[in-house]
Design brief:
Chain lengths: ~120, ~110
């Protein structure tokens, strides 16, 4: 079984400031990890994913995340927040072995960007 | 179409009525998932289809929920005798294969009065 914990249901940052959204996971086997973004009244859009290989992954819109196995973390960062980054962000985990590959999501973090 | 489409976008129904929600996948995508997004529970997996294999129904919350996928393409999620706790956004996602990235539709917002 796997689970995801996102610390902070709401995060506010000033425009131009660092964005840090935290995600910790638990998984019985090596996981695949994902960050999705959801804008109001829209579906989820993939920001980035970690499957194997390089632990620092870069995604769209300047976001990146680092897989840290020892800390069971996959925190999302962006050096400089833009107003357009205001949205809800979901961390998700999926088992890397055989199975139905459904995603297990965290509860989400709503990001507000203050001008 | 270019992406996953879902219909209707909004559905308001009365408690006890049956509803059908539709998902049109990206052409050629063999894997299809239904998730539910609600205020109290976040995003939850409901059911998964892969090609002609038997679906994984392990996430369906009760026997009032069922889904089918005809011809490996369009999928319909049916909720019978709706309850107020069924109010949520129902999201469909599809993938080229089971292990590929999942692309999500815009969802159907269901409100049960």
């Amino acid at each position: 079984a796997q689970s995801v914990t996102q610390l902070g249901s709401h995060v506010s940052v000033s425009e131009g400031a660092l964005v840090l959204l935290r995600c910790n996971y638990s998984s019985s086997v090596p996981p695949y990890l994902f960050w999705y973004v959801q804008y109001p009244n829209q579906g989820l859009q993939l920001l980035l994913k970690y499957t194997t290989g390089a632990t620092l992954v870069k995604g769209i819109n300047g976001f990146e995340a680092e897989f840290k196995k020892s800390e069971t973390s996959f925190h999302l960062t962006k050096p400089s927040a833009h107003m357009s980054d205001a949205a809800e962000y979901f961390c998700a985990v999926r088992l890397s072995g055989a199975g139905s590959y459904q995603l297990t999501f965290g509860k989400g973090t709503k990001l507000s960007v203050i001008p | 179409g270019a992406g996953v489409s879902q219909s209707p976008s909004n559905k308001v129904t009365e408690k006890g009525k049956d509803v059908e929600l539709r998902c049109d996948p990206i052409s050629g995508h063999t894997a299809l998932y239904w998730y539910r997004q609600s205020l109290g529970q976040g995003l939850e997996f409901l059911i998964y289809f892969q090609g002609n294999s038997a679906p994984d129904k392990s996430g369906l919350p009760s026997d009032r929920f069922s889904a089918e996928r005809t011809g490996g393409s369009v999928s319909t999620l049916t909720i019978q005798r709706t309850q107020q706790e069924d109010s949520a956004v129902y999201l469909c996602a599809t993938a080229g294969t089971a292990i590929n990235e999942q692309f999500f539709g815009p969802g159907t917002r269901l409100t049960v009065l």
